[in-house]
Design a protein that fits this description.
Elements: H1 2-8, E1 12-17, E2 22-27, E3 51-57, H2 65-73, E4 79-84, E5 90-98, E6 108-113, H3 123-141, E7 147-155, H4 162-176, E8 178-187, H5 199-211, E9 216-219, H6 225-234, E10 238-241, H7 242-253, H8 257-277, H9 296-299, H10 303-334, E11 338-343, H11 349-357, E12 374-379, E13 385-390, H12 400-405, H13 407-414, E14 418-424, H14 430-443, E15 451-456, H15 466-473, E16 476-477, H16 486-504, H17 508-511
Parallel strand pairs: 3-4, 7-8, 7-9, 9-10, 11-13, 11-14, 14-15, 15-16
Antiparallel strand pairs: 1-2, 1-3, 4-5, 5-6, 12-13
Helix pairs in contact: 4-7, 6-8, 7-8, 8-10
This protein binds guanosine-5'-triphosphate and magnesium ion (MG).
Length: about 525
């Protein structure tokens, strides 16, 4: 090799398997070697690729950063560099192997040998031991049933709240069942058009992700189809963005037929342009987390058939929407006023529904605990009755495909007689949440619907701040948790609905003029 290298003035590399057979030979130029596509590995796993790279250098350069990057990202067994002397004979040798995570801050070890002939270890024994160490570390670090994920975001002047959004992404990732091993926030003047974070940063994040045993990369920014392709080309890791993560959560949590339909439609709409740009071998990259969610297997269908499926699902959905419309008409005829609880995800909407109606719908410290609307009757004294509906929470940058797919459900919410906008008064991002919800509400045409602002979780806010909160936001202070303020809220609801309604005869069943 060294002789040929010297004669041609190019680096030469061999990829050798564990039995000593040469899998591939690679001819480089004077400075570097490009390793051909080796087929995709399964992301970071305890197993190496079973191939070592032995190659020549011509100018006494040590192992380069590129060599080490190949070692890590391609999961090579080891990388060996042999200096080709001016006489064509093999000179100094350097070799590197990966180090198991958790045992060292370093990702790899580089060692020197004065000659290729000075090699006593049993290579097979060495590499098997090393692989076993990786396996042990991986078993220690892995949460069963969860994939390890690294989260990424970019802060620019245009998105000053990138840090809080990234923290929210972590909660979304937890909810989706990912195990977050690292979060990276890069400050840049602007988003990189090709790969969102800069190329160099992406490479170092990928190395770190490999080292930490991650198999998923999640961007807080939404990736355009071409950005997704560019990042996916640079790594074997599964690449997701914020929207996909939210869609995955919805897919995991939808329970009703309508909910499932809506989610799958949103997923298909989101994935179609991305699928179209992906080489076939990469289409798995647009799949969701761990292959779960109702639509998951169906989403594996080809690019062409996904269009047909989308059309069919949309038809089914509009049929369901008609039924829903009929139900709504019937309810109108019965004359029960409709009150919708809306708000940011995790604001305490379901807890409030439970508090007001003595029910026990699911309320958890999770984002998007509720997906499908739940209605309960609420009876006031004097035989007055209303229907109270709890529904899916909103989030900043709520994916447009989702809003569109959920439009029928959401419109029903905003066409209520009264909206209760529930806010988590204890959350530091309170204002941001309020704006995000208002934005979705107005996109659904809710400006006309009377709205009450409910400042929830005041048990977690110092009493000294209550007066300010109330005045600033013109809201009702309440703790759905302790029940404080619930009585007052009920009175106001009753007043709003029946005292005005009686005058306007809006609810014939209640006012007796029917
Ligand atoms: N301290 C306190 N915690 C509350 C209060 N109300 C709700 N929570 C907690 O906040 C978390 C979220 O409550 P949920 O009722 O599930 O919130 P949600 O708005 O329905 O959330 P999603 O359905 O996920 O959008 C739960 O852990 C509740 O126990 C409150 O008044 N005070
Ligand atoms: Mg809920």
């Amino acid at each position: 090799m060294t002789e040929l290298s010297r004669a041609t003035g190019r680096q030469i590399g061999l990829l050798i398997d564990r039995r000593g057979r040469i899998e591939k030979g690679v001819l480089g130029d004077a400075h570097q070697l490009f390793i051909p596509e080796l087929g995709r590995s399964r992301g970071a796993s305890a197993r190496f690729r079973g191939l070592r790279l032995v190659h020549t250098h011509l100018r006494s350069e040590p192992l380069s950063q590129d060599d080490l990057t190949d070692l890590s990202l391609l999961r090579l067994d080891v990388v060996v560099v042999v200096q080709a002397g001016l006489d064509g004979l093999p000179g100094q040798v350097q070799w590197a192997h990966l180090l198991p995570p958790g045992t060292s801050e370093e990702m790899w070890r580089v060692e020197d040998r004065s000659s290729v002939h000075q090699w006593d270890e049993n290579y097979l024994q060495f590499i098997t031991d090393l692989e076993n160490q990786f396996g042990r570390q991986e078993r220690l670090r892995r949460v069963p049933g969860q994939e390890n994920a690294v989260l990424l975001s970019v802060q620019t002047r245009n998105n000053p709240d990138a840090a809080s959004s990234l923290a929210e992404l972590k909660r979304l990732a937890d909810t989706a069942g990912l195990h977050v091993v690292d979060s990276v926030l890069q400050r840049r003047r602007q988003i990189d058009g090709r790969t969102v974070i800069g190329k160099g940063k992406l490479e170092s994040v990928l190395l770190r992700a490999m080292h930490l045993g991650a198999e998923v990369l999640v961007f807080d920014q939404d990736l355009s189809p071409s950005q997704l392709r560019n990042v996916a080309t640079a790594t074997d890791l599964k690449v997701l963005d914020r929207t996909q993560l939210i869609l995955d959560i919805f897919a995991q949590r939808a329970t009703t037929r309508e909910g499932k339909l809506q989610v799958e439609i949103a997923q298909l709409r989101y994935r179609r342009p991305r699928l179209a740009l992906m080489p076939t071998a990469m289409s798995r990259l647009t799949g969701g987390i761990g292959g779960r969610g109702p639509g998951e297997t169906k989403l594996e269908i080809g690019k062409r058939r996904s269009g047909e499926r989308l059309t069919r699902l949309e038809k089914q959905l509009s049929k369901l929407a008609k039924n829903r419309d009929m139900r709504r008409q019937r309810r109108k005829r019965v004359g029960l006023p409709l009150v919708s609880i809306v708000g940011y995800t995790n604001a305490g909407k379901s807890t409030l529904l439970n508090r007001l109606t003595n029910s026990s719908v699911d309320a958890e410290d999770k984002l998007f605990a509720t997906l499908d609307p739940t209605s309960r009757r609420l009876r006031f004294p004097e035989e007055r009755e209303i229907i109270l509906t709890d529904t899916v929470g909103f989030i900043r940058r709520l994916p447009d495909d989702l809003v569109q797919a959920f439009r029928a459900t959401l419109e029903e919410v905003v066409q209520a007689d009264l909206i209760l906008h529930v806010l988590d008064a204890a959350d530091p991002d309170f204002d941001l949440h309020k704006d995000a919800v208002d934005e979705v509400l107005s996109s659904l045409g809710a400006e006309e619907t009377p709205t009450l602002t409910v400042l929830n979780k005041i048990d977690a806010v110092p009493a000294s701040e209550w007066a300010d909160l109330k005045n600033q936001h013109d809201g009702i202070l309440l703790s759905a948790h302790t029940g404080e303020g619930a009585e007052g809220l009920l009175n106001i609801i009753e007043q709003r609905l029946f005292e005005t309604a009686a005058q306007e005869s809006n609810f014939p069943g209640q006012s007796g003029t029917d």
